[in-house]
Give the backbone structure.
Amino acid sequence: MAMPHYEHIVIARQDVSAQQAEEISASLAQIIADNGGQVVKTEYWGLRNLAYRIKKNRKGHYILLNIDAPWAAVAEMERQERINEDIIRFLTIRAEELNQGPSIMMQVKAAREERARREGGRPEGGRDRDRRDRDDDGADMGVEA
């Protein structure tokens, strides 16, 4: 019988480094392995803004784990996450099958990087365009984007 599949998202505190966030994901993968499962894929999505403050944090390091493990392994991992003060939120969803390719978040990130490369390294969001198209008093100079 095949083991159930889970998608698990972890949000770590904003003041941990990216290296520490990777270590958190490695320790979670070890917990799963010790309990008879395996982490099929791990993605680090980076430091992202939160929709609202969580435990006084405005940002968090997002990590996705695709897990193939019995529920007992996932339950133990979640128990360890509740104890860990560097983890501010987590969510586990049972999936019918695991996506082998990059997640939507990684696809969007790759598309943004490609667009920035094509447009000559302009920062995300086009913020410099807004400043360039206005004179000192903020009036529009009639330059179309």
In short: Confidence is low (pLDDT under 50) at residues 129-134. The longest helix spans residues 18-34. The domain at 5-104 is CATH 3.30.70.60 (Alpha-Beta Plaits).
